């Protein structure tokens, strides 16, 4: 019995596009309007306690410790072992953050592994 490869429906592709664009868009917002924007950086380093400064601190900690890249790689490996729309959605969102927020190497490998997940057979349904 030949197993069919993992394929997405049109609705699932639209969902993944929305998630991917939202993740990259929010990553760009955090990078260019919170982390690299000098007035915000100086205000946050000066002790300002707003949600933007807390977001900046969390994002900075996470990309300094490669959390986005490692998480994207783990999710991509899980998706490679057992492809599913849930893992693919999480992987695209995390890799989108990783690609924009300075974890490009690990997030790039994760994207490549997610693409390889389409060559795997779909999980068996009972």
Provide an overview of this structure:
It is a single chain. This protein is elongated. The protein is built from six helices and no strands. The chain has one domain (19-119). The mean pLDDT is 93. It is mostly helical.
Rg measurement, Å? 17 Å
**Strand residue content:** under 5%
Which stretches are poorly predicted, pLDDT < 50 over at least 5 residues?
none
Mean pLDDT: 93
Cα shape: elongated
- Terminal residue distance: 15 Å
Q: How many individual helices? A: 6
Oligomer: single chain
* Structural domain tally: 1
Helix fraction, binned, reads: over 70%
Tell me the series of helices and strands, N- to C-terminal: HHHHHH
Largest sheet: none
According to DSSP, the number of beta strands is 0
Q: What structural class is derived from the secondary structure elements?
A: mainly alpha
List the helices and strands and how they pair.
Layout (H helix, E strand, L loop, with lengths): L9 H26 L2 H8 L5 H14 L2 H15 L3 H16 L3 H13 L10
Question: Could you list some keywords that capture this structure?
Answer:
126 residues, mainly alpha, 6 helices, 73% helix
Concise description?
This protein has one domain (19-119).
